[in-house]
């Protein structure tokens, strides 16, 4: 992990350069940046602005965001709303610029001040919206600021403003931003029954597109396993809880029907389904509720919409972990659709990768589906994708896996696949992408090609102690 320093440490070095070496602010900053970067220090959290350093006084001036935080702190005990709102607007504008300004504000007490402002305006919706917007901007990228007071307050707002979509959207966004890359925050919110509250909102606000999107994204944030500070996250357990306690699959599939003509909402719902279908029985539930048929039909009707196509492919790949779903996808001509998407969006590496993932999933242990892929010339388009996107490791890796599955139990397709120049492409992928070496070797092996398999480790004879 990269090293980090405080704003004060950076300022001290800049001022030292200015006083001892008589450098101008710009030159002093350049020298300080070089020094820290040579030591492996990340300056992503540092505000680098020459106007903050006075060459006459030889001192650093307060940054506008610090001044605004101080003004806000001093004004919260008064009844002058105009000064409070003005300070909040300044903090908001500064925090929206970059992470460095957000970190600077956070390190100077902005979290406590903004939280106090939100509490002050709890029953004044217009001002509360402004304060919540500032809060969202402040915590974006720095969820460590949160504390128990913040958890309790945000949850209480969700309960208080269930009918106010504007405040709800901002509150849920604040919750979501604090869940990204922070396992502790996720568990704190879940313990406060966030999951039940969110799934209730899915039903309560069915017609509101933006509201549904925000709730869907927030639910997905609870299924992340992205906090490197925690040895083992609870992403799987959280997804299971969302489905079993919140009955989310039923609610989401009903919303898909409600918003079938709103691509942006549909894409978010598909993506959320993919994050929640973490168990075989969940995939089966989606099938039983008609979800697979709906997804395939939406895919078919929006074949030219890259976003819908990509998310439909993503969720189909996840659901195809269930053998019954594999059969249903093939029955609904999902194989032909996937190949058609690869042709329609031939220049899109992300869609090529997604198609390869789906074909890999539905051909796993299924000779009948392998036959169907070859019949609709899917193998040819997989190979063509490898030619079109040689530098994309995702395409190369997943194309190798798809080709391998096609011949793993159906050796009769080997000659057809090799006649396309596949062996050369697999060797090129193996040479170009270290991350695709294992998949390329597996494909070469199952195609009967020459491949050098390395023995990664070898046991030695000895006695068991």
From TrEMBL:
The keyword Repeat applies. ARM repeats lie at residues 290-334. GO terms for biological process: hematopoietic progenitor cell differentiation. It comes from the Eukaryota. Keywords: Repeat. SUPFAM superfamilies: ARM repeat. This is Armadillo repeat-containing protein 6-like. It comes from Biomphalaria glabrata (Bloodfluke planorb).
């Amino acid at each position: 992990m990269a090293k980090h320093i405080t704003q004060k440490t950076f300022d001290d070095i800049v001022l030292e350069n200015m006083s001892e070496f008589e450098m101008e602010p710009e030159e002093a900053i350049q020298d300080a940046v070089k020094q820290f970067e040579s030591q492996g220090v990340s300056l992503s959290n540092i505000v680098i602005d020459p106007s903050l350093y006075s060459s006459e006084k030889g001192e650093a001036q307060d940054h506008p965001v610090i001044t605004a935080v101080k003004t806000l702190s001093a004004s919260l005990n008064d009844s002058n709303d105009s000064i409070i709102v003005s300070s909040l607007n300044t903090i908001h504008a500064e925090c929206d610029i970059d992470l460095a300004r957000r970190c600077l504000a956070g390190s100077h007490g902005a979290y406590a001040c903004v939280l106090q402002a939100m509490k002050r305006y709890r029953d004044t919706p217009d001002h509360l919206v402004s304060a919540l917007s500032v809060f969202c901007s402040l915590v974006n990228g720095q969820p460590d600021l949160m504390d128990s007071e913040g958890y309790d307050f945000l949850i209480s707002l969700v309960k208080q403003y269930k009918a106010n979509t504007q405040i709800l959207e901002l509150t849920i966004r604040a919750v979501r931003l604090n869940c990204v890359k922070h396992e502790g925050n996720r568990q704190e919110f879940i313990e406060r029954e966030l999951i039940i509250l969110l799934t209730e909102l899915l039903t309560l606000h069915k017609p509101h597109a933006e509201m549904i999107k925000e709730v869907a994204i927030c639910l997905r944030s609870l299924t992340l396993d992205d906090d490197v500070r925690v040895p083992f996250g609870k992403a799987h357990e959280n997804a299971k809880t969302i489905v079993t306690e919140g009955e989310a699959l039923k609610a989401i599939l009903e919303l898909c029907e409600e918003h079938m003509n709103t691509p942006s909402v549909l894409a978010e719902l598909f993506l959320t389904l993919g994050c929640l279908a973490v168990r075989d029985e969940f995939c089966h539930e989606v099938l039983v509720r008609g979800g697979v048929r709906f997804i395939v039909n939406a895919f078919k009707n929006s074949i030219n919409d890259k976003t819908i196509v990509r998310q439909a492919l993503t969720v189909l790949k996840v659901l195809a972990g269930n053998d019954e779903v594999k059969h249903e996808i093939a029955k609904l001509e999902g194989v032909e659709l996937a190949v058609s998407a690869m042709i329609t969006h031939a220049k899109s590496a992300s869609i090529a990768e997604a198609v390869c993932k789906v074909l890999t999933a539905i051909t796993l242990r299924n000779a009948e589906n392998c036959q169907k892929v070859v019949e609709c010339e899917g193998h040819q388009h997989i190979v063509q994708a490898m030619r079109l996107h040689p530098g994309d490791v995702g395409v190369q890796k997943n194309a190798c896996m798809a080709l391998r599955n096609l011949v793993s139990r159906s050796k009769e397709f080997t000659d057809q696949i090799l006649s396309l120049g596949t062996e050369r492409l697999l060797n090129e992928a193996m040479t170009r992408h270290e991350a695709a070496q294992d998949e390329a070797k597996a494909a070469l092996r199952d195609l009967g090609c020459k491949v050098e398999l390395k023995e990664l480790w070898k046991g030695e004879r000895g006695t068991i102690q």
